[in-house]
Write a structure and sequence with these properties.
Blueprint lengths: L2 E4 L2 E4 L6 E5 L16 H13 L4 E4 L9 H11 L2 E3 L1 E3 L8 H7 L3 H10 L11 E5 L7 H17 L3 E4 L6 H11 L7 E4 L7 H10 L2 E4 L10 H13 L6 E3 L10 H17 L1 H15 L6
Parallel strand pairs: 3-4, 4-5, 6-7, 7-8, 8-9, 9-10, 10-11
Antiparallel strand pairs: 1-2
């Protein structure tokens, strides 16, 4: 039976229910100075609002060293009645102090494995996801290092690998590295932010390769997100790839509409525009497969 590793332990993948496939309860980075997500009460409020709208699980993509507050996640999950999946992994170099990178880069694979199998620090919370990041239209040296470590940690733990695509670009390069060079099964890769570069050819190529495609429209209205989301999803469903699509709120700053908006506005529109069956796949069936531990 497939299982997903949540902050309260492993659960049957079929128990995830309605899932926000890409979000952040907590996030801190010098790239967004003064806009940190660091308030436990606000995180609790967003989770409870998500639950009232029928939400059952949230996958937090916040990786190592970016204020993920792993020690708070179990209590928040329990209190709100929402499954939470935590992430290990490493973002782009710009999000870290150079000295911190010097210390951690040589140990990335072991760090990722340890946080999935043993826990994040002394919190007792185990990560169920490895999050890394590409570069604008490519994979640079830092991204290559982190993705290689992620692929090898995946082989040892079964945890899926989620990838931040910079402005939605570089999917082919990411898949070449993870699945070509490192031999990952594409179905264990989740490509994030594809909607920020509404390139239909890139999206179809990634879908044909077998990866999951995560769209996170509400996070930034100045990108081609909500207003092109429907045509992108419709094209992929029509092409037969409805079983590989995911949606997430991607709350990155306090002003992001995020989790509640995902179910309050986007889900009803998806049901009206594409139908209840594709919507159920996006919110329930697809996350259960995308976030399951390989071999579990």
């Amino acid at each position: 039976m497939s299982e997903v590793r949540t902050v309260l332990g492993d659960i049957p993948a079929s128990g995830l229910g309605v899932c926000d496939a890409h979000d952040h309860l907590f996030l801190r980075t010098p790239a967004l100075a003064g806009q940190e997500l660091d308030d436990v009460d606000l995180a609790d409020g967003r989770l409870r609002a998500f639950r009232r709208l029928g939400g059952a699980s949230v996958v937090q993509w916040t990786p190592y060293g970016m204020g993920r507050r792993a020690g708070e996640l179990a209590a928040l999950s329990r209190a709100a009645g929402v499954h939470v999946v935590a992430a290990t992994g490493l973002h782009q170099a710009a999000h870290y102090a150079p000295k911190a990178l010097e210390r951690i880069l040589p140990e990335l694979e072991e760090l990722f494995v340890s946080e999935v199998t043993e826990g994040i620090g002394a919190t007792g919370v185990r990560a169920g996801l490895i999050k890394v990041a590409g570069d604008f239209h490519g994979v640079g040296a830092h991204a290559r290092l982190t993705m290689t470590a992620a692929a090898r940690a995946h082989r040892r733990t079964g945890a899926p690998v989620a990838v931040h695509l910079e402005l939605g670009t570089g999917a082919a390069d990411v898949l070449d590295l993870l699945c070509g060079e490192e031999g990952m099964d594409p179905s264990r890769v989740i490509l994030g932010h594809l909607g920020r570069s509404p390139d239909p050819v890139q999206q179809l190529e990634a879908a044909r390769a077998g990866a999951f495609l995560a769209f996170d429209g509400p996070s930034r209205a100045n990108h081609a997100t909500d207003w092109r989301l429907w045509d992108q999803l419709a094209a992929l469903v029509s092409a037969g790839f409805g079983g590989q699509l995911l949606l997430g709120g991607d709350t990155t700053v306090p002003q992001t509409p995020g989790m509640p908006y995902l179910l309050r506005r986007l889900r009803p529109r998806l049901e009206r525009f594409l139908g209840e069956e594709p919507a159920h796949a996006v919110f329930v069936a697809n996350p259960a497969r995308a976030f399951a531990l390989a071999g579990a």
